[in-house]
Design brief:
CATH class of the largest domain: Mainly Alpha
CATH architecture of the largest domain: Up-down Bundle
Number of domains: 2
Distance between the termini: 37 Å
Largest sheet: 6 strands, parallel
Radius of gyration: 20 Å
Strand content: 5-15%
Shape: globular
């Protein structure tokens, strides 16, 4: 039985070749006049995209300041730096030229400038809710996080090693410009980590115990099969424009809530468990998800068996005539084989880390704190459950 739901996805998407030339015009259209341009400093610069974007802003006679050097698992200190620039320069619009880390930083700065008298980190600690936020938009360079059309952002407090998320419709980007050409400069590992993140945003809405809709399942399953097919293509043909276009659009659809309509809200425990890995070890997000998901899946599948069976058959192509439990386990194994086929890890050893028992407990306690209580849909996880999943991923 389907749950009631509300679907809200207001971001305007401008997709295709040379769309970056419209950036300045779109900012004008959405009321921006003094822009803070954010970027990481690698692909956006190397590809020439940043120069093209700045030229577009100059053509519209927009005032702008720049803030580069944003890193994966973006840091709170950079957010504070951007807030100070925004205050001093009278910034009224945030433009992210990059991927999820840059967009998430833009959202956090936008919250901070919306309520400059308050500490923005309080939002990520969930001690208050945002009341105001400056407008945000993006020119996307990495297909992965889906932050370009979502209400989510994730920031790492590098002093406490806490990686925390805050979701609010106030920060939904006004527009997202997507030219797949500008993802071609990414290393293969980063491309495939992005594909993994896209899949996980859909998978975590799929494995629920609280009701589902067939049309939503069909959308999710089709998206997952498409991402898997094109991830394999890009592993050997990194310049394939059509494959990059498929992946880029899938990234937005996977995290704008479309693939969860009618579900119970989803099970985002793999993401929450990975956030602690990212906060402590600064691992690549998608690779961290690939390393934790198989252990999570083997730990919870019996509690959500019909969904695991359906996933095995409809997404992974399992045709075994065995029991439901055998089919579910074959689906998990097939997922691991897919990860390996695109160069992704399936455990913490392959990810390149080996946390101690003390670190595992610290991560589990952090995950429980960030969640607020035992949480999950496939299976509600408490502290001991989280510890065991980390241990399984560490022992595999």
């Amino acid at each position: 039985m389907a749950n009631n739901f509300e679907y809200f996805s207001p971001t305007r998407v401008v997709f295709g070749k040379e769309t970056e030339k419209q950036t300045g015009k779109l900012i004008r259209e959405y009321g921006g006049s003094r822009v803070l341009v954010l970027y990481g400093g690698k692909s956006a610069v190397r590809s020439g995209l940043l120069d093209l974007v700045k030229e577009s802003l100059k053509e519209e006679e927009l005032y702008f300041q720049e803030l580069g050097g944003i890193v994966p698992n973006p840091h709170l200190d950079k957010v504070y730096e951007g807030i100070e620039i925004g205050k001093n320069e009278g910034i009224d619009f945030l433009l992210a030229v990059g991927g999820g880390s840059v967009i998430d930083t833009a959202k956090a700065i936008a919250y901070g400038l919306g309520e400059p008298e308050k500490d923005v980190w309080e939002l990520y600690e969930h001690t208050r809710k945002a009341r105001k936020c400056l407008p945000v938009a993006s020119v996307l360079t990495i297909a992965a996080a889906g932050s370009e059309t979502s209400r989510s952002s994730v920031i790492t407090n590098e002093k406490t090693l806490e990686k925390r998320a805050y979701d609010d419709n106030l920060a939904r980007p006004k527009f997202a410009i997507m030219n797949p050409e500008f993802t071609k400069t990414l290393p293969d590992y980063q491309t495939e980590s992005g594909c993994t993140d896209i899949m996980m945003h859909t998978i975590e809405r799929y494995f629920t115990n609280g009701g589902n809709m067939e049309i939503t399942d069909a959308l999710a399953e089709g998206l997952l099969r498409t991402v898997m097919e094109n991830a394999k293509i890009l592993h050997t043909e990194p310049d394939n424009y059509d494959a990059r276009a498929e992946i880029m659009w899938a990234g937005s659809l996977a995290h704008n809530d479309l693939t969860g309509c009618g579900n119970d809200g989803g099970d985002f425990m793999s993401h929450k468990l990975e956030h602690e890995l990212g906060g402590m070890f600064d691992v690549t997000h998608g690779a961290g998800l690939a390393a934790i998901w198989p252990s999570w899946a083997r730990y919870v599948y019996k509690y959500c068996l019909p969904r695991f069976v359906k996933y095995a058959k409809n997404v992974m192509g399992v045709t075994s005539g065995g029991s439901d439990e055998e089919t579910a386990l074959l689906g998990i194994k097939a997922m691991e084989e897919f990860y390996h086929s695109i160069g992704m890890p399936v455990n913490l050893k392959e990810l390149g880390i080996h946390p101690t028992e003390e670190q595992i407990r610290e991560m589990a306690e952090g995950c429980l704190k960030a969640s607020g209580s035992s949480t999950g849909s496939a299976k509600k996880l408490d502290l001991q459950d989280m510890i065991r999943i980390y241990q399984m991923a560490n022992e595999a």
